[in-house]
């Protein structure tokens, strides 16, 4: 039995990914401790799952944002500030918690720099989890928060380098925190988020058929497809008598952070009325009942079992969040992406690149453009055909079970002798054989 620390942002989409890993790890006999900011909640309850909530540090509260306010949007200021505070909080409090629990390995979300810093400080192996698009640097791929098309030419690579430099400038407050803790703990110099992800192994939900072509720089990426918990599965039907199976059905969701976009939902409803198609909207609890009642869709709900509903749909309208996109493609449903923030422009660009869907920019949304895009997705067969091909790739990717097997492989070859001794109780004979036949290559960079 091994003890694993799981560290991820307090966002629902990231928490669901880590819950799926925890569920599989506990089923295989491991002990799991979540290290989360205060206010984060888990659905899982099990004697072998512990949740440690990090308290906000008074020293960090209200810290100035070093001149960024005059030049950056409030949303970006808030995002950089949140990242910086979480990194500082993790580095202040997590080492003691992990030492007390004799943790064997750290599973860290790629967006939590503190996970990599703490693992290096405690000399623990680190496996990074790409809940969103992988941030692993690749000269042929633009940063994931840009909606640029894939350009493998020298000019494209130069554009990508410029974009990385701009991103580095925008993230400089967070980068200063990373550099501070690396110096504080006597680690090799680390300057940005990319320097804090594992060079041993990064598990990603993004399968190759959804990503831009990557080079050998990303050879340590392990694509496993959607990481989903059994808690997401239901047995009751998701459609009621108001849904006509003979008419096209469209599902729309803007995720848990953008579900308040009432203006977009109203436009979607008007476009679907023009096409005489059915529209089910999930606002993820972000609208009041009064606001929801003003949207003229077939159904407007706070929550709905997304994967089960998508099995009945013809098109999915999404903000480009990776979890929703993977759920739709798993059901072979093409996507109209309306990217709003974070890595969503990058996801939308990949959908267009692989002819898995279309995208419209939120600032250019009109009923006419929405109607045209939806009509094209409903009638052009290539999008459904491409989505069907990708659904087969996703189905064979392995999911949480394959991810846990790779985590155990890293633990076996990089963990302590005590952790390796416990594998006789945890692993099957066949899995042990795979581990022994597949030695893991040490990091080229000396990072955890």
From TrEMBL:
<protein>
    <submittedName>
        <fullName>Glycosyltransferase family 1 protein</fullName>
    </submittedName>
</protein>
<dbReference type="InterPro" id="IPR050271">
    <property type="entry name" value="UDP-glycosyltransferase"/>
</dbReference>
<keyword id="KW-0328">Glycosyltransferase</keyword>
<dbReference type="InterPro" id="IPR002213">
    <property type="entry name" value="UDP_glucos_trans"/>
</dbReference>
<dbReference type="Pfam" id="PF00201">
    <property type="entry name" value="UDPGT"/>
</dbReference>
<keyword id="KW-0808">Transferase</keyword>
<dbReference type="GO" id="GO:0008194">
    <property type="term" value="F:UDP-glycosyltransferase activity"/>
</dbReference>
């Amino acid at each position: 039995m091994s003890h694993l620390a799981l560290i991820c942002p307090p966002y629902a989409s990231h928490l669901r990914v880590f819950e799926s890993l925890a569920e599989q790890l506990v089923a295989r006999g491991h002990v799991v401790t979540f290290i989360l900011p205060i206010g984060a909640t888990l659905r899982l309850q099990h004697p072998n799952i512990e949740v440690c909530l990090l308290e906000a540090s008074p020293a960090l509260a209200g810290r100035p944002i070093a001149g960024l306010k005059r030049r950056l949007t409030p949303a970006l200021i808030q995002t950089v500030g949140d990242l910086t505070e979480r990194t500082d909080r993790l580095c202040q409090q997590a080492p003691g918690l992990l030492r007390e629990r004799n943790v064997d390995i750290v599973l860290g979300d790629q967006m939590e720099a503190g996970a990599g810093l703490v693992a290096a400080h405690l000399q623990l192996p680190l496996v990074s989890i790409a809940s969103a698009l992988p941030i692993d640097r690749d000269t042929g791929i633009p940063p994931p928060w840009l909606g640029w098309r894939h350009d493998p030419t020298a000019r494209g690579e130069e554009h990508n380098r410029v974009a990385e430099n701009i991103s580095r400038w925008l993230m400089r407050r967070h980068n200063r925190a990373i550099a501070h803790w690396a110096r504080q703990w006597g680690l090799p110099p680390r300057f940005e988020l990319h320097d804090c992800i594992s060079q041993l192994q990064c598990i990603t939900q993004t399968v190759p058929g959804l990503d831009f072509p990557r080079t050998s720089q990303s050879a340590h990426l392990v694509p496993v497809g959607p990481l989903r918990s059994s808690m997401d599965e239901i047995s009751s039907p998701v459609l009621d008598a108001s849904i006509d199976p003979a008419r096209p059905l469209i599902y729309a969701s803007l995720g848990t952070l953008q579900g308040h976009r009432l203006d977009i939902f109203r436009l979607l409803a008007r476009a679907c009325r023009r096409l005489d198609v059915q529209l089910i909207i999930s606002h993820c609890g972000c609208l009041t009942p009064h606001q929801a009642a003003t949207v003229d869709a077939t159904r407007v709900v706070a929550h709905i079992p997304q994967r089960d509903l998508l099995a009945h749909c013809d098109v999915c309208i999404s903000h480009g969040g990776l979890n929703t996109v993977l759920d739709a493609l798993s059901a072979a449903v093409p996507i109209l992406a309306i990217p709003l923030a974070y890595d969503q422009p990058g996801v939308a660009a990949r959908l267009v690149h692989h002819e898995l869907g279309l995208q419209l920019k939120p600032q250019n949304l009109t009923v006419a453009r929405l109607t045209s895009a939806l009509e094209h997705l409903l009638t052009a067969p290539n999008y459904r055909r491409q989505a069907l091909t990708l659904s087969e790739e996703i189905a064979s990717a392995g999911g949480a079970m394959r991810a846990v097997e790779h985590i155990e492989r890293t633990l076996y070859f990089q963990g302590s002798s005590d952790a390796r001794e416990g594998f006789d109780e945890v692993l099957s004979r066949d899995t042990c054989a795979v581990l022994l036949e597949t030695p893991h290559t040490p990091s080229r960079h000396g990072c955890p």
